[in-house]
Prior knowledge:
The chain is mainly α. Helix 20 (356-367) packs antiparallel against helix 21, helix 21 packs across helix 45 and helix 29 (516-527) runs antiparallel to helix 30 (531-544). The longest helix has 21 residues, at 231-251. The chain contains 45 helices and no strands.
Amino acid sequence: xxxxxxxxxxxxxxxxxxxxxxxxxxxxxxxxxxxxxxxxxxxxxxxxxxxxxxxxxxxxxxxxxxxxxxxxxxxxxxxxxxxxxxxxxxxxxxxxxxxxxxxxxxxxxxxxxxxxxxxxxxxxxxxxxxxxxxxxxxxxxxxxxxxxxxxxxxxxxxxxxxxxxxxxxxxxxxxxxxxxxxxxxxxxxxxxxxxxxxxxxxxxxxxxxxxxxxxxxxxxxxxxxxxxxxxxxxxxxxxxxxxxxxxxxxxxxxxxxxxxxxxxxxxxxxxxxxxxxxxxxxxxxxxxxxxxxxxxxxxxxxxxxxxxxxxxxxxxxxxxxxxxxxxxxxxxxxxxxxxxxxxxxxxxxxxxxxxxxxxxxxxxxxxxxxxxxxxxxxxxxxxxxxxxxxxxxxxxxxxxxxxxxxxxxxxxxxxxxxxxxxxxxxxxxxxxxxxxxxxxxxxxxxxxxxxxxxxxxxxxxxxxxxxxxxxxxxxxxxxxxxxxxxxxxxxxxxxxxxxxxxxxxxxxxxxxxxxxxxxxxxxxxxxxxxxxxxxxxxxxxxxxxxxxxxxxxxxxxxxxxxxxxxxxxxxxxxxxxxxxxxxxxxxxxxxxxxxxxxxxxxxxxxxxxxxxxxxxxxxxxxxxxxxxxxxxxxxxxxxxxxxxxxxxxxxxxxxxxxxxxxxxxxxxxxxxxxxxxxxxxxxxxxxxxxxxxxxxxxxxxxxxxxxxxxxxxxxxxxxxxxxxxxxxxxxxxxxxxxxxxxxxxxxxxxxxxxxxxxxxxxxxxxxxxxxxxxxxxxxxxxxxxxxxxxxxxxxxxxxxxxxxxxxxxxxxxxxxxxxxxxxxxxxxxxxxxxxxxxxxxxxxxxxxxxxxxx
Length: 854
C-alpha cells in the first residue's frame, strides 16, 4: 500500500468576518470557547496578537491557551497538554506565574507532584493559595504527599497528609474511635487536604449508620477534587444499605439494634484502601498495572500471559468510547502480529467480547500497511460477509444503469450488484491498497503485464479482488460519486488513456458543475495533440470558474501550443492569429515571455518568406532582451521546435553575457516546458566562467542544467553556490545531490544520499515544502545499499535520523571542497527486467473464516 505522507494543515482563521477592533477579536475568541472549539480559539487569538499587538491580545491568547490545555487534559492527551503549556510559558514570560500554574496542572494530571510541591515549599500569600487550590483538585493519593521529599518533614501539609493517610487506612478497615478522628480538626478548611478530611468523616458516619451526617460531609466535598469522584459511589452504598434496613424492619418485628461502631455485613460494606484510591483516580491505578503486564508479556513474546492480561483488560473496554476501544484493539493487534504470535487465540478472545465482523475489520486495518495483499483478501471476504448478512445497505439489480452500461467493461467474475455509499467506500479503500506505480504492482506479483493478472484470476491463481479496475467498476455501480470517477480516471490514466478520457467524460456528464473532469480533459486532449478540442473543453471550464489558476494558465498554454502546431503545419497566418490572442494574455508580459512570442512571430515571417519582417522582428527582439546571446539562444530553440533553418551562432561571447543568457533561457524554457538546445562548446564556456555568476543565476543554472541533460554543469554550479552563505544552501545541496544521483560509483551515491538528507532537513527548517518533496523523491530513487548489506551480512539496517547541525556543517564543508565533477550519466538507468515467480498471498481467506467461526 502506498504510505501517504501526512502534510501539516495550514493554520487558518475560522471562516467568519474579519474582526477590526480588539473588542471584536475578543468576542470571536470567547464565542469559539463557548462553543467548545478551543483549538480554533487559540489560532484566532494568535492572529489577533499578530494583527493588533498589545496587552488585550496577549490576555485573550493566554485565556485560550488555558481552555485548550484543559480540554487536552480532559481527553487524556497529557503529554500534548504539558508541551503546549510549557511552550506558552516560554513565549510569554510576562505571564510566567499564571502559565506555570497551567504547567503544574498538566504535571499533576499525569501523577507528577514534584513541580507544584517544590514551588509550594517557598510560596507565600496569594501564590501559596493558588498552588494549594491546584493541589486540592489534582491530588488522588494523600500517601504520595506524606512521603514526598519536595517538602521538609516539618511542613504542615506533609504532616497533615501523614495523618490523612493513616486515618484513611483505618476508617476503611475497622471502626475508629471518635477521639482519634478529633485529630482532623487541626486541618483547616482552606487546606488542599480538607476534601479528604470530609471523606474520612463521611465514611465513618456511613459505618455508624448516620446517613444524614454522612450525606452532610459528602455535600461539602468539592466535585472537582480527588475525593469528589468518590461521592457518587458512597451515596450509592448509602442508598442500598438504607433499603436493606427498611426491608429488615418490615420483616422483623423485634430487630436487634447493633452497636453504633459495629458495621452490618462488613464483607459487603467495607472498602479496601487501594479500591478507594483506584476510584478516586478513575481506575488509572489498576488499568496501568494491567497495561504494564500486557506490555511485558508482549515484549517477552509470552502468548499465554499476554492473553491472560488482555482478558483482564477487556472489561474496561465495555465502557470506553468507541474510538478509544478501536485504537486499543488495533494497537494490540499490531504488536501481536509484529511479535509473530499466533493470531488464533487472540482473535478467539476478542470475538467472544466484540463483534466478529468488527474484529476482522480491525485485523485488515492493522496489516494493510505492511501486507497489502493479505489485507485485500480480508477486506474482500469482509465485504462479501457484510452483504450476505445485511450489515451494509444493499439492493440487487438485474442490470446496470445506462451510464454504467456505456462505460463499464465485462469483468472476469460475475458479482451481484450491490449499491450504497458504504459499499463504494470499502471498494475504494481496497483499490487504494494497491501500489500506486503499476510497475511496483507487477514486481510484487512477479509478472510482466497487467493482462497476466486477469489471466491468473481466470485460472484461479489469484483472487478476483486483485483486479483493481474491476473493483473500481463495482464501486461506481454501487455509488457513482465524484471520488469514484476520480479514482477511475487516475487508474486508467497510465494504462489506457482512451478509457481514462471516457471515464472523465462520463464524470462530466454526471456532474456538469464539476471542474476537475474538464481540467483533465483539457490536459489529456492537449497531450495527444487535439488542441481545438482542448480549447473547447477549456471554454466550458471557463463558464464554471474563469478565475481558477489552472483554467487561466491553460488558455495561454493551449494558444501557444496551437501557434507552434500551425507553424509546423505550414499555416503561419493562422499562427499569427493565435499570437495576437496570446499577446492579450497577462502572462505574455511575465519575464522574457514576450521575447519567446516575438521569436514565434519571427518564425512565422520566415515561413511567409518575409525577409523584411524577419529583420524587423529580430531587431525588436534584440532591443527588448538587451542580450545578443539570449537573442540567439531563443531563436535557435524556436528554430529547432518549428523545424526551420537556425540562425548563425556567434563564437565570441563575453563570459558575463553568456552566463546571463543561459540562466535566463533556462528559466524561460522551464516555465514554458519547452526543450532548450544549447551547443556543447557554449556550455563548457559557461562552466568555466561560473565564478562570475550571481546566486540567482547559479540557482537557475542548477535547475536548467539538469533539465537539458548536463549534470556536470549542475554539479559545478551547485558547488559554486555553496560558497555563498544564506538561506539558499539547501537548494544548491539539492542540485548537487541530484547530479550525484547520476554517478556510476557507490561512494558517489553515498555523497548524494547525504547531500539530499541535509537538503531536506534545511528545506524543512525553511518551510520549503517543494524542496522537501524533491529531496525525498530523489532519495527514493537511490539504491538501498543498507538493505543489501542487511540481506548479505544479517546486520539490521539502522533507523535514519535527521542530520544534526554538526552533520550539516560537515556535509557543506565537504561539498565545498569537491570542485571537479565525477563521472556522471546523462540519463537514469532503466528498470531491470523482472523474473516470473508464483504469487503467494501473505494471508488467505481461511483466516477470515476462522475468525467468524468463533
